[in-house]
């Protein structure tokens, strides 16, 4: 690898794989040299985004054996991540890896991946990119700088459109995704841990599949994924966090609304819907101290147009890649570790269990017990 150009191999070239391609194409010194995907249409569409044609493989093993790449990006379906990592752990020439969330889908993966990653000599970065959304990054930074005083409560709301159609409909069944509270909500559980700087102890959740995908059938089976939930997480340091997820709120103006409140103030951020509205509005960060005279500080958070256009995650994939690039080049730390990825998934698994069994679930027992 030259310091200038990192040669990436992409495993899984669907919607998110293409978001990685578009973001790397605006980061100088990045080249996707190989793509592995069993789906010919995904390979073709992804390759068309690249000026220099990559090597194309119809399975990941062939790419991993090829030795063409300085770094790997895993953006295949959730239930393939753990197996691919197992395979990568035994590579002759290990390279840095960015693995999309969730890092795994089964409780039995947790401890094995943790041990495998501990032995792996190169950086592994987990795609918890919500940390890098500019308005969210502002909120986190200011909480950690003490602007709200001692933070006690974290409130997270995501109100959005239903899960989109995926290649082979892999995202319609909990068996393949880990369930909604693992699949997408591991992002929020990661944010909660990151903001709280503490570990989850206990999860109480209630959720259901009320409206979405009920009339769909795949091999005669109806999808089983939740489309709404409330989740409460207790943290070891006494903080409490709450997630309000609704996936039949297609018309929401704000898709994500996060608030952290402490003894001195509340800070919140509002992130516009990622799809649907013609009008593009900037995200906002609001700061409201506890004082007699109400003094709201309201900031708009602008993100570079090119960066926004490169993905559907409000610029976060771009900033995530800048960090991963630094880690590859040995110029920066792995900011989202395998441990972070596993812990976020474990909270999601605890939440799924809590919904199914209608009880509070201790996270530790599930995690590595
Ligand atoms: N970070 C985020 O915010 C974010 C957003 C969306 C998706 N994701 C994650 O990205 C991953 C891919 O999601 P997507 O939306 O692109 O799905 P997708 O269905 O659009 O694409 C998945 C691709 O992987 C391919 N694939 C299947 N099995 C494979 C294998 N064994 N090896 C290589 N390729 C394989 C499929 O053919 C398909 O082209 C998922 O893990 C998802 O959770 C992350």
UniProtKB/TrEMBL annotation:
Q: State the superkingdom.
A: Bacteria
A single Pfam family it belongs to is GFO_IDH_MocA
Q: Which Gene3D superfamilies does this entry report, sorted A to Z?
A: Dihydrodipicolinate Reductase, domain 2, NAD(P)-binding Rossmann-like Domain
Q: Which GO terms describe its molecular function?
A: nucleotide binding
Q: Where is the Gfo/Idh/MocA-like oxidoreductase N-terminal domain?
A: 6-127
Q: Ranges for the Gfo/Idh/MocA-like oxidoreductase C-terminal domain?
A: 141-363
- Quote the protein name from its UniProt record: Gfo/Idh/MocA family oxidoreductase
